[in-house]
């Protein structure tokens, strides 16, 4: 476990025998573990000069290139490994991961199929194979592969992925069970609260519930709907949320205390993560009807900065948080939306904070007051003056839906679990209409259908 000591010992061994490739490979592994990527690369390249056919050195160099972000170099190195050792499962697996990362799902699927054919107990390969099948809409094959992965290695990420697939297919109850694996699967940590987690059981009179936020803004906006109903079970309900949502939720949730940091746990008897309310409340499509929409409203005094233009006033949001791993797949290229600007009778409004210049550069002029927005309360006030919101799968979709604002969602083919399959409506938001890619990556067809409907609406 003492990497530094091991590294020094190996460095000494290399000095004593500089012509031994295996020593240099082992030294490189220790350097890599200590974060010295340059030193590790130098050792691996030295090992390969000594022994060009050393598969272990070549594979470790490929892994190092992958870690450093040199994907093109990593691909070449893994291919070199396969030239020397065609049955190398690790190289095939990593080539599959790289293909999937760049969006070449068919190529990734082929690599993962080769891995599981060669190494049928490779749980990670089964998990990634399932993800490829899911991306291509082969739901049954995806489910079978996830189940195989779970059977081989009961990993949280496969249980979580299987849960979201259940939800996508409308299997609500098992879906929520699997969704509880999200913490471990996504590397998140529950707040360390000295409180029992509320699991839906009856509580004594005077019980006080702390609901803590998790994940993104959209998740909290989606599940804020269920908070007022909890007052029937608890004497007090408090939700801790990000500061950007404080004013909006305080104005929207009657009888709920809202704060922007975790309060003193001593003031509560129970706690629950907000997304766990789905499982606690046994939510399914029928149960959603018990929680009315709209449930959000803009705070009084919010600074919208909105001015209506002539005709139909439409807000546009084409991308989300670039830090999210799926942002590339949910975002719509602005160039594909440029044709919408030519529809007569529409005044367009920017809903992308700080990105109006990007739209103008793409030839899409938008009214823009986003620089005046302090928080989601201001954004909600802006949406209130619009007739329609068109958005990618972002927090704007949940804000508009929670406000009861007509919202058209552009969804990728392998939709987020919330939007289910093969339907244009949403049980979460009665005012929502969904425009889906008919095939993976096919934004033009989805935008074309939306374009025709928008022309009809603007007439």
Automatic annotation (TrEMBL):
Query: SMART domains, from UniProt?
Result: TPR
The UniProt entry, under InterPro entries, shows: CellSynth/LPSAsmb/PSIAsmb, TPR-like_helical_dom_sf, TPR_rpt
Q: Which domain of life is it from?
A: Bacteria
Which parts are the TPR repeats?
55-88, 89-122, 123-156
Arranged from A to Z, the UniProt key words for this protein are: Repeat, TPR repeat
Entry-linked Pfam families: TPR_16, TPR_7
Q: Which PANTHER family match?
A: LIPOPOLYSACCHARIDE ASSEMBLY PROTEIN B, TPR REPEAT-CONTAINING PROTEIN PA4667
Q: What is this protein called?
A: Tetratricopeptide repeat protein
